[in-house]
Write a structure and sequence with these properties.
single chain, 7-stranded mixed β-sheet
């Protein structure tokens, strides 16, 4: 299934903000997210943070329809680049779309990477372990942070089997 990634800009920002609502709802299972008084799940802080240009935000599309998004902080030099969020709508999960999106982002970006998420988010941990194993990454480090509240997985695109 072909996956298309498109960076957010003024033409698709509203779509991204809608997808953030679904994401916020899903995160409410693992983190202390409650809807705001207007019924929205994201207070705008994450949307604003991702819209300031410091993160590489891309909408994932399948057959021209939105399927989710991926957010990265891409570093130059020896610092780690970070996959901040990978979100796939429930109707598209378990089809390999998240893996294809991550693989697309990693293409041509050699060096150290991290993925960070809540330790309570067991599906994220399962996704990353499966993706890194199937993709042949060697010397993957899995660390807990924030007194066990978050997980950080470190890997390097230069260290994978073919």
């Amino acid at each position: 299934m072909p996956v298309r990634l498109q960076r957010i800009d003024d033409s698709n920002r509203t779509l991204f903000e809608r997808l953030l609502q679904f994401y916020g709802h899903d995160l409410s299972e693992f983190e202390e997210h409650e809807p705001d008084f207007d019924g929205s799940f994201c207070d705008g802080a994450r949307a604003k943070a991702y819209s300031d240009g410091s993160a590489d935000v891309q909408i994932i599309s399948i057959k021209g329809k939105p399927a989710g998004f991926i957010v990265c902080s891409v570093a130059d030099g020896p610092r780690h680049s970070t996959v901040l969020d990978v979100f796939v709508l429930r109707c598209y999960r378990r089809l390999g779309i998240g893996s294809l999106a991550v693989e697309t982002v990693l293409e041509g970006r050699e060096g150290p990477w991290t993925a960070e998420f809540s330790a309570d988010n067991r599906p994220a941990l399962k996704f990353w372990r499966s993706f890194l194993t199937k993709s042949g990454f060697r010397s993957v480090r899995e660390l807990t942070q924030d007194e066990g509240r978050s997980v950080r997985i470190e890997f390097d695109t230069r260290e994978r089997s073919s």
